[in-house]
Amino acid sequence: MIRKQMVQPLETERLQLRGWKRSDAPQLYAYASNPNVGPKAGWKPHESIAESRKIIETVFRESRVWAIIEKTGGRIIGSIGLSEDRLRPGVRSLELGYSLAEEFWGHGLMTEAAKRVIAYGFEYVGLDVMMIRTGEENIASQRIIEKCGFQYEGTLRRIYKIYDGTIKPVRCYTMLREEYDSLRHAGVL
Ligand SMILES: CC(C)(COP(=O)(O)OP(=O)(O)OC[C@H]1O[C@@H](n2cnc3c(N)ncnc32)[C@H](O)[C@@H]1OP(=O)(O)O)[C@@H](O)C(=O)NCCC(=O)NCCS
Prior knowledge:
Blueprint: E1 10-11, E2 15-19, H1 25-32, H2 38-41, H3 49-57, H4 59-62, E3 64-70, E4 76-84, E5 93-100, H5 109-125, E6 129-135, H6 139-148, E7 151-161, E8 167-176, H7 177-185
Parallel strand pairs: 5-6
Antiparallel strand pairs: 1-2, 2-3, 3-4, 4-5, 6-8, 7-8
Helix pairs in contact: 1-3, 5-6
The site of coenzyme A (COA) has 20 residues, from helix 2, strand 5, helix 5 and helix 6.
């Protein structure tokens, strides 16, 4: 088991990443209530600010989850996090996950955030593996995963029961420590 630490602030060219606060609930609700966002990642759209606050206090506290803030407007526009890799008990591995407000899609922002969190995972947490899973229809997420240099491992069929009861297949990808080192060396990360 990898010891949980407080998330430390991170920065990229266009973004600041910091831990979530209870008072961020209205900003989380603003994008997480959009039905085009959560279901693509398997979660139900938030129905109230109170529900968003509860997610901050429970789900986000149990993992390392950052709020993504765009530097120009100072607004929270998404989240990115590392959570327990339940497929690899006893291995120094965490699972990457993310979501972004719809009006900010298509500008390379999540790829930028993901590359920063990948570096944090291998260099600061000392991971041996990072894992990410995504739905078959989620082409945008698959592109991010490819651009970051993860390796496709295979698809687990009829595995993931989402909030509405549907059971979906998931595509699984990993990056090993030595692959991270090579990608860093090659300037991909
Ligand atoms: C997935 C998500 C985070 C992408 O964020 P983003 O900042 O737009 O991603 P980026 O711009 O960094 O990269 C997206 C890539 O997918 C491509 N893309 C997006 N939609 C596409 C589509 N329908 N077909 C083909 N390519 C597509 C983009 O062109 C871009 O690739 P490129 O840089 O080669 O042009 C955002 O769409 C989102 O929050 N979706 C809902 C939640 C979610 O799916 N979370 C992930 C769960 S695994």
